[in-house]
Q: What sequence folds into this?
């Protein structure tokens, strides 16, 4: 699904993009940005995208009062946090819903969304960057600037001795917690299988925000074929081994599409599928 910078998903219901078209500020290699991108694509919402570089903090603070991405500009509002973005999209664009209509199912889907956001996403980030910062800080910078202009890496490279400490502080990552973080990832994968119980979807018989969030949190490490911003650097053997181990888990196989209809999964991911 090739969407370039300031590109957009094809016109929704025949309408061309306008100055009022939603704009997404995002970072390419970010599971939370991927979650917002996927939600926009799943709903086939025509929108623009703008990649922000490592110096996004000030711009994000000015827009929302928080130094985080993604941020969606929608109907004159700047909406931060992928969960709030999806809630706003559900209200503004109810077509192709991500929230179940049944109140109980909806509550369960939202609880799973929160769990994956708070547990799986941060732990998997730490499980990847901790050994990279420890052994290959230059590779870490190349990974973190995936999909950004080359100047992003060039600007960070002179800071490679101090950037890891800043990044760990900002994301509450502790070098000594690597095994605990990986245990949290494994627990989340087990939770996916417990919730799925062999079914194609986590909640009910339809794709929901719970499925989207689980797969988005895993996207950067799984690197599915349809991912918009694939890694352009070869991972060190110790991370290749970790990735291979994750791929053996039934939950990651499900997220990668091995245990559901692959064509349907890609169609849910791509706005151009079937058109």
A:
């Amino acid at each position: 699904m090739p969407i370039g910078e300031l590109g957009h998903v094809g016109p929704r219901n025949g309408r061309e993009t306008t100055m009022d078209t939603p704009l997404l500020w995002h970072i390419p290699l970010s599971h939370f940005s991927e979650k917002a991108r996927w939600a926009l694509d799943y709903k086939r919402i025509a929108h623009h995208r703008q990649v922000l570089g490592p110096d996004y903090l000030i711009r994000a603070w000015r827009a929302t009062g928080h130094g985080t991405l993604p941020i969606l500009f929608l109907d004159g509002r700047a909406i931060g946090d992928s969960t709030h973005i999806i809630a706003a999209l559900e209200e503004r664009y109810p077509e192709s819903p991500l929230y179940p209509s049944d109140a109980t199912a909806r509550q369960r889907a939202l609880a799973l969304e929160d769990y994956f956001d708070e547990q799986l996403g941060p732990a998997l980030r730490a499980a990847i960057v901790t050994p990279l910062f420890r052994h290959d800080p230059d590779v870490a910078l190349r990974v973190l600037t995936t999909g950004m202009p080359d100047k992003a890496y060039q600007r960070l490279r002179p800071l490679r001795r101090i950037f890891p400490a800043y990044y760990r502080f900002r994301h509450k990552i502790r070098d000594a917690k690597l095994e605990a973080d990986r245990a949290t990832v494994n627990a989340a994968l087990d939770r996916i299988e417990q919730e799925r119980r062999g079914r194609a979807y986590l909640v009910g018989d339809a794709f929901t925000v719970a499925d989207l969030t689980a797969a988005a949190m895993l996207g950067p490490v799984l690197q599915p074929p349809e991912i918009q911003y694939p890694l352009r650097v070869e991972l060190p053997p110790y991370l290749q081994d970790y990735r291979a181990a994750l791929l053996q888990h039934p939950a990651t196989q499900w997220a990668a599409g091995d245990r559901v209809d692959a064509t349907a999964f890609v169609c849910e991911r791509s706005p151009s599928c079937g058109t």
